TrEMBL record:
Pfam families: FixS. Residues 41-70 are annotated as: Disordered. It comes from the Bacteria. InterPro entries: Cyt_oxidase_maturation_cbb3 (IPR004714). Residues 49-70 have a biased composition (Basic and acidic residues). This is Cbb3-type cytochrome oxidase assembly protein CcoS. The keyword Plastid does not apply. Keywords: Membrane, Transmembrane, Transmembrane helix. NCBIfam families: ccoS. It comes from Sinisalibacter aestuarii. The chain crosses the membrane at residues 6-25.
Length: 70
């Protein structure tokens, strides 16, 4: 009796998942999976952040040596 209920239920859930996958594929959900992740990480204008003195981790030689453990 349990198999008569569970077999069609499992097949139905599998088909439902397959339909959801094809719906997402057709609506462009998988077009650019890496683009959104990199848009969060990369700045809009990289020239604004390059070359500023306050961006350096250790501007003095003493600080660089301390960071290296010397």
């Amino acid at each position: 009796m349990n198999l008569l209920l569970l077999m069609p239920l499992s097949i139905g859930l599998g088909l439902l998942g397959l339909c959801a996958f094809f719906w997402a594929l057709r609506n462009g959900q998988f077009d650019d999976p890496d683009g959104a992740a990199w848009r969060v990480i990369l700045p809009d204008d990289p020239s604004e952040t390059e070359g500023k003195n306050d961006d350096k981790l250790a501007p003095h030689a003493q600080d660089r040596n301390a960071r290296r453990g010397l």
